[in-house]
Every structure is written in C-alpha cells, then in structure tokens.
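Please check the following for our workbook:

***
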Amino acid sequence: MAFTRNTDGGIIAIIATESDGKFSWYVKEKFTGATVDSKTGDQSGVLLIASGTGVADYDTAAAELKVAYTAAV
C-alpha cells in the first residue's frame, strides 16, 4: 500500500500506564492518499508502526519508544 505521510502530526508516540503498574508504548503514523484494492478512492488513517506492552519501568519504556520512533522518522 503506497501512501503519503501526513506531515501535520504524522508520527504519534505515546507511553501509557497499564492497570498493573507496568507501561506500554506505541508509535503510529498518520497517512493520506492510500490506495486499497478493496476500497474506492483515496484512503486516510493511522498505521501502527511499533508497540510494546508489559514494560516494567518508565525509563525502559521510553528507551524502547525512542528506538522505534527514530526508526520511523
């Protein structure tokens, strides 16, 4: 699927606290102009690029997120 990265806040990076006190993180990318075989016209949306769950502490989650974010940009 070819698409154009949405340059207005195109990469989203979030760290969240889970109910058990551990951390999860994800990196998502907004896009426009995608062509999908099963749909008509240009599509837009958000793709999950990378994620992690059950991380024991914030610093580790932040380090993992930074690696994924750097790879995405």
About this structure: The radius of gyration is 15 Å.
